[in-house]
Amino acid sequence: MTELTNTELINTELINVVGGAVLDSLAEPARLLVARRTAPPQFAGMWEFPGGKVEAGEAPKDALHRELREELGIAVILGAELEAPESSGWPLNERASMRVWFAEVADGDPRPLEDHDELRWVSIQDRDEALHLPWIPADLPIVRALLTALGAPLPAGAAPRA
Q: How far, in Å, CA of 10 to CA of 12, rounded?
């Protein structure tokens, strides 16, 4: 058996990504904010949840707050995390997984400041409006799960909050 070098160990670590399912309201959600990518070329023009990589030493929720401030110019209130099929989150590829939290804008007007050229509010009641967008392939199962989670009737007084 060969030993792995530190570089090889680092290269095999899972890349942690966070995404924001930004809703018009955590208490009574009707619309979801989605973002169209400008890069890399294979994803340009496709839609995704805004967010990004968790930096070394950064907590995932802190990373999401930072990414939404950098990419969209907003501060948010975070709600519950969208349940994922794996403890590490939603698989994006062999090396990365994403955790997604519901969020609501607390301050600022969302604008495409970084990595995106368009933002759009889509209905969560009209599933087709969201599902017919050209999503980054790894995000599509997350969109389906999110719409299912939000479409299920909630008990009186319940909301998708943490």
A: 5
Q: Which amino acid is at 14?
A: L
Contact 126, 32 (CB under 8 A): no
d(CA 23, CA 42): 27
Q: How much is the pTM?
A: 0.85
Question: Judging by beta carbons within 10 Å of its beta carbon (0-12, 13-18, 19+), is residue 20 exposed, middle or buried?
Answer: buried
Q: Is 23 a member of any domain?
A: no
Residue 35 falls in which region: left (phi positive, over 0), alpha (psi -120 to 50) or beta? beta
Distance from C-alpha of 119 to C-alpha of 110, rounded to nearest angstrom: 8
pLDDT surpassing 80 at residue 4? no
Query: How far apart (Å, rounded) are the C-alpha atoms in residues 43 and 50?
Result: 13
Q: Considering its fold, how many domains does the chain have in total?
A: 1
Give the residue numbers spanning the domain of 85.
Answer: 29-151
